[in-house]
Amino acid sequence: VARSARAIGPRRAQPRSPPKQVARCASALAAARASSDRESPEAVAAEMRACYDVVARMGRGAVYLGSARVPEDHPHFASARALARDVAATYECTTWSGLGAGMMEAVTRGGMDAGKPVAGFMILLEAGGARQASRKHPYLPPETYHTTSFFSARKHGLVDAGMREEATDRTAFFALPGGVGTLDEIFEVLALFQLRRVGSKHPVPFALMNYDGCFDSLIAFLEKDMVAYGSLREDELVPHWRACATNEEAMAYLNEFYGAE
């Protein structure tokens, strides 16, 4: 009984650490932080600011997310190039991407085919490769892009490039076929739309380019499996994006979207 009484009685104050011990702990913590491999938050913030500067300089527009591994002789490469050309020419907007190979190269050429500005954010690391010390685009002027070390800064820049500050702005997001990195970017944008945290003053269209049914399984997973599981409501994502099998469907979607405003 005595033992129980002591257990539920008031706790004795814990002895304070001597000032010298506190100082030693603080010094050790500072040294550990200084020697850590983790990059500083200031470096990430600086890259974000640099990305925002490029957006301010080049103007917002159509943002394309897609694989760097699609070869130039693939039919989807030609489709993506034609899509970027038609969107840039129709809406007179800047073409944005990660400025890598594959689908990113396709839309870069498409924007240039239309004679409109092309811009983007490169990364010092791509899937299957080693991180480079520096990286420059082979033919775009340096003022049209920024090369980042952090994926977070790159994604912030791409999202900002698709925002609409004015009702007359014409921007859009396009999800082209891709792998893990592309899916990461797609779901980042989709989650921001779903949670109403995207930051745009006006709605922005989002087209999922389902060339040859490449996203059929993903769509089924979201619309059937996740609804059955209970993590999504039926038709919850319908207001936020549209699956388009062809470029013609995508252009019709944009015309419908902006024609209704």
Account of the protein in words:
With 261 residues, this protein is of the alpha/beta class. The chain has nine helices and seven strands, in the order αααβαβαββαβαβαβα. Strands 4-3-2-1-5-6-7 form a seven-stranded parallel sheet, with helices on both faces. Helix 7 (180-194) links the parallel strand 5 (172-175) and strand 6. The radius of gyration is 24 Å and the shape is globular. 33% of the residues are buried.
List keywords for this structure.
261 residues; alpha/beta; seven-stranded parallel beta sheet; 9 helices; 47% helix; 11% strand; globular
Describe the strand arrangement of the main beta sheet, using strand numbers.
Answer: 4-3-2-1-5-6-7
**Helix/strand/pairing category:** alpha/beta
Q: Span from first to last CA?
A: 77 Å
Q: What's the number of extended β-strand segments?
A: 7
Average pLDDT: 88
Major β-sheet, in short? 7 strands, parallel
| C-alpha geometry | globular
One letter per element, helices H and strands E, the order comes to: HHHEHEHEEHEHEHEH
CA-atom Rg in angstroms: 24 Å
Helical amount: 40-55%
Q: How many helices?
A: 9
Q: Any low-confidence stretches, pLDDT <50, length ≥5?
A: 1-17
Percentage beta strand: 5-15%
